[in-house]
Amino acid sequence: MRFGNLAGRFVLRTDEGAVDVAAATNGLLPADPAEAYVRWDDVTAWAAALDPATLGPVVTKDFGLEALGPPSPRPRQVFALALNYADHAGESGLAAPAGPSVFTKFPTSVAGPFGTVALPSATVDWEVELVVVIGRPARHVAAADAWAHVAGVTVGQDLSDRVVQFADATPQFSLAKSFPGFSPLGPWLVTPDELGDPDDLELGCAVNGETVQAARTTEMVFRVPAIVAHLSRVLPLLPGDLVFTGTPAGVGALRTPPRFLAPGDVLTSWVTGVGEMRHVCTAPHETTSRDAHGGG
After folding, report:
1. What is the pLDDT of residue 158?
2. In the chain, what is the straight-line distance between the N-terminal and C-terminal CA atoms, in Å?
3. Are 107 and 271 within 8 A, CB to CB?
């Protein structure tokens, strides 16, 4: 199943088009994408039993991709992992962590899969990631049961201002990665059963058509089941919560010379079988000459 946020309304993507979930169920299921995750069992049961012949006018056959918003627009919690690909740890000059290295991103950074992203400085870096959306409350979940608590996965970018991140002796991961628009998601939420092996997905990103990151999620140090189990041992995971699962090698700050996003750059991000995002970078509000370094 593929679900999305079309102009603020929760939709199911079918061969016929985008089915408005609330309209198709006469209001029995929510129109608000954020509320849909609270009713996830009801949503998926309805979608599994759907008869396309009964859809009628609740299907939008033609729509612009720019109308798609983030599949989970108002998560209560946003988690992210640092150094979760061995090759990215290596390019950072660090060993892979012994356990998941977790930080948080602030929900106000969540944005949709198409449009523009305003660069707050001249040192903004790309980080393509597979993003997990929680569908059922998870607390003390075993790794073997973790996927059952996941609504689905989507494409994400953990955009990062490297000067803010490493301005002081103590890195500021959360702040540097939470400017407005720094957590774009989409275009669709794809349920795990659609993916064959959800632990083996191809992801990558390109800047102006040049591929700068390419990997498979099998290269993660900690895969999705281990991440969900680890987080749920500490705190409850809630429907609609996001987990950015880490980025592979190829970030701009660790290139020689370092390379960052600039106004006019087109950033394309994808996960094969899930979808593709596209963002155009706009002029920074201010620039800085301080050196940027490191990855996350």
Report:
1. 98
2. 31
3. no
The candidate with the shortest Cα–Cα distance to 190, out of 139, 156, 227, is: 156
Residue 207, beta-bridge partner list: 210, 267
CB 240 within 8 A of CB 37: yes
Q: What DSSP character marks residue 97? A: P
Triad 278, 109, 80: Cα angle to 5°: 90
Judge contact between 217 and 205, C-beta under 8 A. Answer: no
Helix/strand number for the chain, H first, E second = 7, 19
Q: What is the pLDDT of residue 73?
A: 98
Q: Which one has a higher pLDDT value, 16 or 280? A: 280
- Eight-state DSSP code of residue 138: B
SS3 assignment, position 148: helix
Q: For residues 47 and 11, is the Cβ–Cβ distance under 8 A? A: no
The tens digit of pLDDT for each residue in 79-103 reads 999 999 999 988 888 888 999 999 9
293 pLDDT higher than 50: no
Q: Residues 242, 256: contact at Cβ < 8 Å?
A: no
Measured distance CA(216)–CA(128) in Å, rounded: 12
Give the rounded distance of the alpha carbon of 268 from its chain centre: 13
Token pair of 237 as six digits:
């995971």
- Whole-angstrom Cα distance, residue 290 to residue 165? 12
CA separation for the pair 211, 277 (Å, rounded): 14
* Whole-number Å distance between alpha carbons of 246 and 80: 7
Burial status of residue 81 (CB atoms within 10 A of its CB: 0-12, 13-18, 19 or more):
buried
